[in-house]
């Protein structure tokens, strides 16, 4: 069904640079970022429960997580279902995912090293009860995601709030030359685009906004500075600036120690898969 606006074209335009990357460039980019994403996923662990709690999951379900990264969603989902297939193009990300799963006693995650953007990738992934794409390459083709799910397809991303990348750059303010885009959280380019794409396909999507954030308790500020090194490279002459950036989000606890907290919001969008004639 054609809509009043070409939401798919807007979606493609926003992701154009990423979609143009060849496979080797993608592998290098995600592999290089694995340590940082793993650290951020651990900080987000408690808030991630808010997202998983919005999902209808059955103990007999099979789930596929497209662009699983270090297992931020795959691991808590695996605790509720029969099996999770964790798909990623990066070997480093998949290694993080399995290592993190083992640390939590989770043994029903099957890693799949795969480029979701390649033609025919959905056939290699196969059909699952539930398909999930969270802040990942899975967003690049919603039709594919729809077609590999029997019961539900879920997509999750930032809800007009600071993204992981924005939060990372905030911690690196005055250290890296890269800046947060001024239009980063423009509501014109939020989850409304994905919602309207689905609607124009004849799908009736559901969406809910949940509280999200990155948090951890520390005994001392020094412990926080040391722990957060995964954020990025901190040259010795930028150490004072890094500590100043971290201090903005450290609050002294009433008894002792400090708590780090960066709040944001995430949308969880889902629908019942349909036969699409696009």
Query: Helix-strand pattern, N to C?
Result: HHHHEHEHEHEHEHHEHHEE
Characterize the largest beta sheet: strand count, sense, and whether it forms a barrel. 8 strands, mixed
* CATH architecture assignment: 3-Layer(aba) Sandwich
* Head-to-tail CA distance between termini: 8 Å
Report what the structure shows.
With 278 residues, the chain is an alpha/beta fold. It has one domain: 3-Layer(aba) Sandwich (Rossmann fold), CATH 3.40.50. It has 12 helices and 8 strands. The protein has helices at residues 7-14, 16-19, 23-43, 45-52, 74-78, 91-103, 121-125, 142-147, 164-171, 191-200, 221-227, 239-247, and strands at 62-66, 83-88, 109-113, 128-134, 149-158, 206-218, 250-252, 258-271. Strands 1, 2, 3, 4, 5, 6, 7 and 8 form an 8-stranded mixed sheet that branches. A hairpin with a 5-residue loop joins β7 and β8 (258-271). The longest helix is centred in the first third of the chain and has 21 residues, at 23-43. The radius of gyration is 19 Å and the shape is globular. The model has no long low-confidence stretch (mean pLDDT 91).
Summarize this entry quickly.
This protein is an alpha/beta fold.
Strand and helix map with partners:
Blueprint: H1 7-14, H2 16-19, H3 23-43, H4 45-52, E1 62-66, H5 74-78, E2 83-88, H6 91-103, E3 109-113, H7 121-125, E4 128-134, H8 142-147, E5 149-158, H9 164-171, H10 191-200, E6 206-218, H11 221-227, H12 239-247, E7 250-252, E8 258-271
Parallel strand pairs: 1-2, 1-4, 2-3, 4-5
Antiparallel strand pairs: 5-8, 6-8, 7-8
Helix pairs in contact: 1-10, 3-6
């Amino acid at each position: 069904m054609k809509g009043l606006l070409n939401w798919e074209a807007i979606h493609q335009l926003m992701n154009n640079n990423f979609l143009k990357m060849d496979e080797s460039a993608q592998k290098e980019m995600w592999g290089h970022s694995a340590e940082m994403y793993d650290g951020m996923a651990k900080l987000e662990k408690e808030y991630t429960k808010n997202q998983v709690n919005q999902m209808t999951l059955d103990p007999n379900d099979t789930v596929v997580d497209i662009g699983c990264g270090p297992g931020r969603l795959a691991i808590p989902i695996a605790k509720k279902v029969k099996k999770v297939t964790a798909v990623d193009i990066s070997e480093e990300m998949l290694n993080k995912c399995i290592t993190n799963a083992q640390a939590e006693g989770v043994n029903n995650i099957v890693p799949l090293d795969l480029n979701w953007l390649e033609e025919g990738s959905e056939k290699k992934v196969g059909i699952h009860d539930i398909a999930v794409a969270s802040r990942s390459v899975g967003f690049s083709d919603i039709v594919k995601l729809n077609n590999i799910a029997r019961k539900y397809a879920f997509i999750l991303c930032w809800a007009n709030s600071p993204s992981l990348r924005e939060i990372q750059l905030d911690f690196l303010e005055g250290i890296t030359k890269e800046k947060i885009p001024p239009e980063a959280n423009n509501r014109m380019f939020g989850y409304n685009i994905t919602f309207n794409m689905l609607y124009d396909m004849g799908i009736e999507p559901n969406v809910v906004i949940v509280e999200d954030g990155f948090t951890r308790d520390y005994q001392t500020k020094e412990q926080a500075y040391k722990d957060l090194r995964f954020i990025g490279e901190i040259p010795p002459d930028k150490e004072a600036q890094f500590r100043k950036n971290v201090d903005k989000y450290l609050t002294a606890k009433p008894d002792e120690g400090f708590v780090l907290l960066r709040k944001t919001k995430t949308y969880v969008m889902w629908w019942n898969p349909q036969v699409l004639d696009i």
